[in-house]
Design brief:
128 residues, 2 domains, 4-stranded antiparallel sheet, alpha+beta, single chain, 12% strand, Arc Repressor Mutant, subunit A
Length: 128
């Protein structure tokens, strides 16, 4: 879409501009969170944090919590949080041992979002 077309659309329908601002603001928040995580948190906390972001962006409610419908390999998660695959595997296993997440049919299921948020350094749990 050309800039002039976008400008015209926003002038015709201001809600389009508001929605674009919301989307860009959310993207910026996620990037800031990821950058902060890399410098301040260990691999387990970074993994918990990125899984929370995935639940918020694409998670589907399931009978046992939330399901992330996209398949994420440990290597892909590692690239996202700046960690190697082995470290992600260990961190994921730790979260599984605490019954916070499960891996079923190559998909991530979050069984306790509040604990996952705290593990990711979010402090008080937010209501969904």
């Amino acid at each position: 879409m050309l800039r002039a077309d976008l400008d015209r659309r926003i002038l015709e329908k201001p809600e389009v501009g508001l929605r674009i601002m919301q989307l860009l603001s959310e993207r910026l928040r996620r990037q800031e969170t990821r950058l902060e995580d890399v410098g301040m948190k260990d691999v387990r906390a970074r993994l918990a944090s990125i899984i929370v972001l995935l639940v918020e962006s694409e998670g589907k409610r399931s009978s046992s919590g939330y399901r992330i419908p996209t398949h994420y390999t440990h290597e892909r998660l590692g690239t996202t949080i700046w960690a190697n695959r082995t470290a992600v595997t260990r961190a994921f296993r730790s979260l599984q041992d605490e019954d916070v997440v499960q891996l079923r049919r190559r998909l991530i299921y979050v069984t306790d979002l509040d604990v996952l948020r705290r593990s990711g350094g979010y402090g008080a749990a937010q209501e969904e």
